[in-house]
Amino acid sequence: MCPMELLKQKILAEGRALNEHVLLVDCFLNHQVDVKLMKAVGEEFARRFADAGVTRIATIESSGIAPAAMTALEMDLPMVIMKKSVSSILKDGIIQTEVFSFTKNAPYLLTLKTQFIKPGDNVLLIDDFLANGEAAFGGISLLEKAGAKVAGVGAVIAKAFQPGMQKLRAAGYRVEALAPVRRMAEGLIEFGE
Amino acid sequence: MCPMELLKQKILAEGRALNEHVLLVDCFLNHQVDVKLMKAVGEEFARRFADAGVTRIATIESSGIAPAAMTALEMDLPMVIMKKSVSSILKDGIIQTEVFSFTKNAPYLLTLKTQFIKPGDNVLLIDDFLANGEAAFGGISLLEKAGAKVAGVGAVIAKAFQPGMQKLRAAGYRVEALAPVRRMAEGLIEFGE
Predict the structure, then answer these.
(1) Mutation test of the interface with chain A: which of B19, B31, B38, B159, choosing the one with the most A Cβ atoms within 10 A?
(2) In Å, how far is A89's CA from the nearest CA of chain B?
(3) Is residue A117 part of a domain?
(4) How far is CA B148 from the centre of its chain?
(5) Does the pLDDT value for residue B14 go beyond 70?
(6) Which residues pair with B112 in a beta bridge?
(7) Are B153 and B168 in contact, with CB atoms under 8 Å apart?
(8) Cα separation of B27 and A81, whole Å?
(9) Would A150 be classed as within a structural domain?
(10) Domain count, chain A
C-alpha cells in the first residue's frame, strides 16, 4: 500500500468526523502521535517537493512540529517553528502577525525571529491541517516579511470544502495535501479535492 | 565524537548564556531545530532507557516534541503530547493540572486525554529543558493520575544548579540529562551534574 493510502486508511479507521466541520484525529496526529506514520508523511512531502529547491522547513506551533521534523530530517534541512506564544527571552529581532484561530475562537500573535529566515531562503511550510488557511497565510506573511520565498505549503490533512486550499492556490502558492477531504458528516469522511 | 559530545559542542558553539539563569539555545533546539541532532538525541535516549520496559513516550507542548518524536521513532513507540492549551474540540475525558512556567511567569493548565495513557503503561517523559522541575512534576502527576508508571525523565539540557533534577531523583524518578549544565554566567557554560 502506498504511504498516503496508509494515511487515508488510518483516518477512516481511527479518525472521527463529529459533524460537517470537525474531524477528530487526536489519536494519531495531534495529541497521541503515530511517529512512524509521520515519518512516511515526511518522506512523501520530501518526494513531492524534491524539485522545489527548498532551503528550510517551517511550521506553526505545535501540531505541525512532528510532520515538519520528519520532513526536515528526510530533506536534510533545518526546521523553524513559528511560535504562538512568546517567552520573556524571545523579544529581540522578532516579527509578528495576528492570526485568528477558528479552533480556539481567538486570535494569537504568530512570531518569528528573523535570524532564522533570510532573504534567499525558499521555505516549505508544513502543517497538520489546512482548513480556512488563516494559519498558512499568517505563516507565509511572516516568511515573506523576512525576505524569503515560499516554495509551497504541505498539509497532512486538508478540508478541501473550506476555503484555505483554493485561496492559497489562487494567490499563486503550490499546495500539496496528503489527505484532502472533500466532504464530511457525522460518521462520514470522503476523500478528494 | 560520541553523539552527546556533539550536543555539548553545539551548545558551546551556538548556545548563549545570557546570565546565571538563562541559556539561549533557540538556534538549534526550540525555535530553529537541528533535526539531525534531535535524531542523535532520540537514539541516545533510546539507548539509555533500552532496559526500562517503556511502552509510551510523553512530552509537554511544544519544545519537547521534536526530541520526543525522534525518541519515539527510535524506540518504535507512540508519542503523547501533553497540551498547554485546550481546543474547543478537546473537552471530554481529560485530566488537568496547573503548572507554573518560570519562562512565561504565568501558570497554565497541562492537559491529557486519559484515552492515550492507560494503567499498565510505563511512560518515558522527554523534554527539551529541565530546570525547576515544574513541568516535569506536572507531567508526572498527570501520567500517574491516568494510572501509568513513569519509567523516567529524559532532558536534552538540564540546569543542574536548579532544583528540578535533584527533586525528581529524591522522589525516586530516574533522570537522564544529555547535557547537564553545572554553572552558567554571561558567556560561560560549564557542563557537569
Answers:
(1) B31
(2) 7
(3) yes
(4) 17
(5) yes
(6) B95
(7) yes
(8) 11
(9) yes
(10) 1
Cα gap A65→A83, rounded to integer Å? 11
- Is A61 in Cβ contact with B26 (below 8 Å)? no
Query: Is B160 part of a structural domain of the chain?
Result: yes
A35 contacts B73? CB cut-off 8 A: yes
Residue A102: its pLDDT value, please?
85
- pLDDT digit string (tens) for B144-166? 999 999 999 999 999 999 999 99
Cell readout for A93 is 529581532
pLDDT digits (tens, 9 = 90+) for B103-138: 888 899 999 999 999 999 999 999 999 999 999 999
Radius of gyration of chain A (CA): 16
What separation in angstroms does the CA of B50 have from each of B3, B29, B33, B44?
17, 24, 25, 10
- DSSP letter at B83 equals B
> What is the Cα–Cα distance from A129 to A135, expressed in whole angstroms?
9
Task: Indicate whether A7 belongs to any domain.
Answer: no
Size of interface A-B (CB pairs under 8 A): 108
Grid cell locating B42: 532520540
Q: Are A136 and A130 in contact (CB under 8 A)?
A: yes
CATH code where residue A77 lies: 3.40.50.2020
Its pTM stands at 0.97
Residue for grid cell 522522589:
B171
d(C-alpha B86, C-alpha B173), whole Å = 28
For residue A88, pLDDT over 70 is answered with: no
Q: Using CB atoms, which residue from B18, B35, B89 is nearest to A69?
A: B35
Q: What are the tens digits of pLDDT across the range A25-49?
A: 999 999 999 999 999 999 999 999 9
User: Grid coordinates representing A164?
Assistant: 484555505
Structural contact between residues B121 and B56, judged by C-beta atoms closer than 8 angstroms: yes
Contact A89 B39 (CB under 8 A): no
The domain of A89 spans 39-180
Cell numbers 516535569 correspond to B136
pLDDT tens column, A122-147: 999 999 999 999 999 999 999 999 99
ipTM comes to: 0.97
